[in-house]
Write a structure and sequence with these properties.
The strands form two sheets. Strands 1, 2, 3, 4, 5, 6 and 14 form a seven-stranded mixed sheet that branches. A seven-stranded mixed sheet has the order 8-9-10-11-12-7-13. The relative contact order is 0.19. It has helices at about 5-15, 50-60, 85-95, 140-150, 170-185, 195-200, 235-240, 245-260, 270-275, 295-300, 310-314, and strands spanning about 20-30, 30-45, 60-70, 80, 100-105, 115-120, 125, 155-160, 205-210, 215-225, 225-235, 265, 280, 285-290. Helices cover about 30% and strands about 30% of the residues. By secondary structure, the chain is α+β, with helices and mostly antiparallel strands.
Length: about 325
């Protein structure tokens, strides 16, 4: 998968937040059957809440959680066998690492007895053949052409693992990331310069320049015919003029198609706008169980606090 062990190690080495990472290797009769990535962190009950007064009200409520998945990965994955027997063993180990256990944003149904299941953020996935967007509807083709025209005056520069993002570009990338992060209502992690420096040799970056000044970037991870969008940053004063976000995404898609990419993970927000360029939504699930029975009952009744808001699903 695009978020392989090299990326996870780089993320951990960057020292972001209070995340602690690990893998559980599950064996049966001395044969390894599963590899389970997990992390621990302090979960704030207002993380997915967008209403201002409720977000402030819930701010003091938090607990340590051991979570299968990764904080920056859109879809949870377990390599190998995913059976009730395997997950029971995993949960016995994770029980000692936090007050609760969670499985973050899995598109597959998991056999987890005693866990509460809620809807997660859907992933926007674009399948793009060599003729993209010719095979899509007339409205999608028009929308793609219009967005490309708006951004045509920009200078786009691509960097790949073979020609990595220059070290002197990291400060501008971080500056633009901070602009985007400041506008986001949902945030599980906050990046630093070290993250961009350490992941540069693993990533494809598309940078947008206006008159020699960087005004936007998008970071991708590639594995064969699939790429996963990781982070973006942009100058929002330029966004309306150039339709900057979609200009960068569509330019990335064109470049990716040219080198054999056929599936683009466009992330978990902006669902309506991404549908307008041909993306479809892949539903995900979040599973959780608190070790305290009273707290688990409370969370089950207040499950809406763990689900994305209507605004996030639109």
């Amino acid at each position: 998968e695009p978020e392989d062990h090299r990326f996870l190690r780089a993320f951990q080495a960057a020292g972001i937040g209070d995340f602690r990472f690990g893998y559980l290797l599950v064996y049966r009769n001395e044969v390894r059957v599963s590899v389970v990535p997990y992390f621990t962190t302090e979960y704030r009950m207002n993380t997915l809440v967008t209403h201002v007064w409720l977000k402030h009200l819930l701010a003091p409520l938090r607990f340590r959680v051991a979570c299968v998945g990764h904080p920056s990965t859109d879809e949870g994955r377990i390599e190998g066998e995913v059976s009730a027997e395997v997950l029971q063993v995993v949960n016995r180990v994770l029980r000692g690492k936090g007050a609760a256990i969670a499985y973050k944003w899995f598109s597959q149904a998991l056999p987890l007895d005693g866990f509460v299941e809620v809807s997660g953020l859907p992933i926007n996935v674009l399948a793009a053949g060599a003729d993209y967007p010719a095979g899509l509807s007339r409205n999608v083709r028009r929308n793609v052409a219009r967005k490309l025209r708006k951004s045509a005056g920009l200078d786009f520069r691509e960097y790949t693992p073979q020609n990595p993002l220059p070290a002197d570009a990291v400060s501008d990338v971080l500056r633009l990331y901070e602009k985007t992060a400041a506008r986001g209502e949902l945030q599980f992690e906050h990046l630093n310069a070290e993250y961009f420096r350490l992941t540069a040799p693993l990533s494809t970056y598309l940078l947008a320049f206006e008159g020699g000044q960087m005004i936007g970037f998008v970071q991708w991870l590639r594995n064969g015919a699939r790429v996963s969008g990781k982070y973006i940053g942009m100058d929002y004063a330029r966004n309306r003029q150039y339709d900057l976000y979609f200009g960068m995404v569509l330019q990335s898609i064109r470049r990716g198609i040219a080198v054999g990419v056929r599936e683009f993970d466009l992330g978990v927000s902006g669902n309506y706008s991404k549908r307008l360029i041909g993306a479809v939504q892949r539903p995900t699930r979040l599973y959780f169980r608190h070790h305290n029975a009273l707290m688990q009952a409370l969370l089950a009744r207040c499950r809406f606090l763990l689900e994305p808001s209507a605004e996030e699903l639109a």
